[in-house]
Amino acid sequence: MQENEQYRTIRLLKTIFPGFEDMLEQLYRQDPVFREIAMEIRECIEKQEMIYQETGKRSGSYTETINELEEELLMYLNNDKYSNQSNDEK
């Protein structure tokens, strides 16, 4: 079951952040804080979709939370990208 959640989370992140596929998998495996944020965003998106299917409306609070989590993950991805570039230059 845990592997299924991991697969769903990584697959979702790849649709949100195209171009970061390898980095997403690496960070998800190695960084527990990144993994926790990633799981939170997946859970929020799944809950929002459930609400949308039931009501036809998106939850403003979930949308706001999802946007905040996306920004947080993007900072992780950009920081990792720049640290990898500086390591490559050494």
Ordered list of secondary-structure elements with their pairings:
Layout (H helix, E strand, L loop, with lengths): L1 H15 L4 H10 L1 H24 L4 H30 L1
Helix pairs in contact: 1-3, 2-3, 3-4
What does this entry look like structurally?
- With 90 residues, the chain is mostly helical.
- It has one domain.
- Helix content is 88%, strand content 0%.
- α2 (21-30) packs across α3 and α3 runs antiparallel to α4.
- The termini are far apart.
Summarize the structure in short.
By secondary structure, the chain is mostly helical. The protein is about 90% helix and about 0% strand. Helix 1 (about 1-15) crosses helix 3, helix 2 packs across helix 3 and helix 3 (about 30-55) runs antiparallel to helix 4.
SS field, number of helical segments: 4
Secondary-structure element sequence? Answer: HHHH
Distance between the termini: 41 Å
Main sheet properties: none
Strand content: under 5%
Average pLDDT confidence is: 86
Poorly predicted residue ranges: 85-90
Helix content: over 70%
* Class per helix and strand makeup: mainly alpha
Structure summary, number of beta strands: 0
Number of domains: 1
Q: Which geometry do the CA atoms define?
A: globular
Q: What is the C-alpha radius of gyration, as a whole number of Å?
A: 15 Å
